[in-house]
Amino acid sequence: MRVLGIDPGLTRCGLGVVEGSIGRPLTLIDVNVIRTSADVPIAQRLVTIEKGIDAWLDEHRPDAVAVERVFARSDSSTIMGTAQASGIALVAAARRGLPIATHTPSEVKAAVSGSGRADKAQVGAMVTRILRLDAPPKPADAADALALAITHIWRGGAQARIDAALAVQRLAGRTR
C-alpha cells in the first residue's frame, strides 16, 4: 500500500509518501513541504497548496491519502489556515476517488511512538527509525506527514482488512 500523508498548514504543508504493509518494513518514497508566504493573499496561497498536492498525487499515485484531522487550538488564526489547507487536501484526493482517512495528532503520536503525548522530536526520531533514515526529516511538518502515512498503513490497513472480512461475512450470510 502506498499512502500520501498530508500535514496541512497554510505556511507549511507537509507531504510524505510511504509504501509498505503491516508487519513488513516501510519505505520512504518522497517527502517535502509546500511553502507559502504570509505576504500573499490567502486564496493564492490555497491555490499554491492545491497545485502542489495535485502534482504529488499525479507523480506518486498513492492508494490512499491520510490527512491530519483539524482540532481546536487556542489560536483561531492558526486553526483557520490549517482547516483551509486540510479542505484543499481532502478535495484534491476526493476528486480522484482515493480513499481518505483523517487521524488526530494524538492518534499519530501514539501509533509511531507509543505515546499520544509525544513531542515533535520524539515523533521525528521514531519516523527516522521506522523508515531507516539517516536523519529526521526537516522541518517537523515533513516528519509529521510521514508519521500520518505510517499511521494509516498500520491502522488503516488493518481496518480495511476488518471491513473486507465483515463484508464477506455479510455476503455469506445472505447466500445461506
UniProtKB/TrEMBL annotation:
Source domain of life: Bacteria
Main location: cytoplasm
Gene Ontology biological process terms, A to Z: DNA recombination; DNA repair
Listed cofactors: Mg(2+)
Protein name: Crossover junction endodeoxyribonuclease RuvC
UniProt record similarity statement: Belongs to the RuvC family.
The UniProt record lists the keyword Magnesium: yes
UniProt subunit comment: Homodimer which binds Holliday junction (HJ) DNA. The HJ becomes 2-fold symmetrical on binding to RuvC with unstacked arms; it has a different conformation from HJ DNA in complex with RuvA. In the full resolvosome a probable DNA-RuvA(4)-RuvB(12)-RuvC(2) complex forms which resolves the HJ.
SUPFAM superfamilies named among the record's database cross-references: Ribonuclease H-like
Residues that bind Mg(2+) 1: 7, 141
Record: active site: 7, 68, 141
InterPro entries registered for this protein in UniProt: RNaseH-like_sf, RNaseH_sf, X-over_junc_endoDNase_Mg_BS, X-over_junc_endoDNase_RuvC
Keywords from the UniProt entry: Cytoplasm, DNA damage, DNA recombination, DNA repair, DNA-binding, Endonuclease, Hydrolase, Magnesium, Metal-binding, Nuclease
GO molecular function term, any single one: DNA binding
Binding positions (Mg(2+) 2): 68
CDD domains: RuvC
Subcellular location: Cytoplasm
Pfam families (alphabetical): RuvC
Any one GO CC term of the record: Holliday junction resolvase complex
Organism whose genome encodes this protein: Nocardioides agariphilus
Function noted in UniProt: The RuvA-RuvB-RuvC complex processes Holliday junction (HJ) DNA during genetic recombination and DNA repair. Endonuclease that resolves HJ intermediates. Cleaves cruciform DNA by making single-stranded nicks across the HJ at symmetrical positions within the homologous arms, yielding a 5'-phosphate and a 3'-hydroxyl group; requires a central core of homology in the junction. The consensus cleavage sequence is 5'-(A/T)TT(C/G)-3'. Cleavage occurs on the 3'-side of the TT dinucleotide at the point of strand exchange.
Gene name as annotated: ruvC
Cited PANTHER family: CROSSOVER JUNCTION ENDODEOXYRIBONUCLEASE RUVC
